[in-house]
């Protein structure tokens, strides 16, 4: 996405179409799949507790979110991010949508992700929990934002996997810059978990 202080409806629709195609290639977008229930909604502003969000998925609707017209099960992309000044780069809109569809996947398949023992083994804590000790080394994570919580770690890992399911590490700058760089065991475990969950969900 270009630099600018707002996301246009046209930009959002273009990014959404691209991510839909990626989900379809991965076998996660077809008639009857729960992800197709998730709408991507262009809104003017995010609720106050999400005022710095470039996009957000609603897991649970409460009074404040209803006041902003937000319902559970959907992705919202605000036209403006209140905590970002004018002309600040918002990053890739496609990456935002990939990430939020990761949260949608966890929402619609809680037994495989949110309540999964395999998730805890791969990500070090339950989806809705926190790590016993905050991580300090980024080598086990696909992005710095992934270090904020297990659920964000999952969504960021899913976003990287969706870009290139055959070789998701090729989308990470540190692996592109250094061909001799090797993923840690922890990072491989997370990518393997995402791959295995998505393979289970592919339509037979």
Given the helix and strand composition, which structural class is it? mainly alpha
Tell me the major beta sheet: 3 strands, mixed
How many domains, in number, for the residues?
2
Helix content: 25-40%
Q: If strands are numbered along the chain, what order do they take across the biggest sheet?
A: 1-3-2
- How much of the residues is beta strand, in percent? under 5%
**Mean pLDDT across residues:** 88
Q: Total strand count, please? A: 3
Low-confidence stretches: 85-89
Please work out how many helical segments DSSP would assign: 7
Oligomer: single chain
H-E order:
HEEHEHHHHH
Determine Rg (CA atoms, Å).
17 Å
Keywords:
204 residues; mainly alpha; 2 domains; 3-stranded mixed beta sheet; 7 helices; 40% helix; globular
């Amino acid at each position: 996405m270009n630099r600018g202080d707002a996301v246009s409806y046209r930009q959002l629709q273009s990014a959404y179409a691209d991510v839909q195609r990626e989900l379809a290639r991965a076998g996660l977008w077809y008639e009857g799949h729960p992800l197709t229930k998730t709408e991507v909604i262009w809104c003017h502003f995010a609720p106050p507790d999400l005022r710095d969000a470039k996009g957000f998925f609603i897991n649970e609707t409460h009074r404040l979110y209803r006041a902003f017209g937000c319902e559970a099960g959907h992705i919202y992309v605000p036209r403006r991010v209140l905590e970002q000044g004018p002309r600040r780069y918002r990053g890739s809109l496609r990456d935002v949508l990939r990430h939020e569809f990761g949260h949608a996947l966890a929402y619609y398949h809680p037994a495989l992700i949110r309540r999964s023992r395999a998730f805890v083994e791969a990500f070090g804590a339950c989806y809705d929990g926190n790590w016993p000790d905050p991580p300090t080394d980024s080598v086990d994570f696909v992005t710095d934002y992934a270090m904020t919580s297990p659920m964000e770690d999952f969504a960021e890992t899913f976003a990287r996997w969706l870009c290139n399911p055959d070789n998701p590490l090729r989308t990470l700058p540190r692996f592109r810059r250094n061909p001799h760089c090797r993923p840690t065991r922890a990072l491989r475990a997370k990518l393997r978990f995402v791959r295995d969950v998505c393979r289970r969900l592919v339509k037979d």
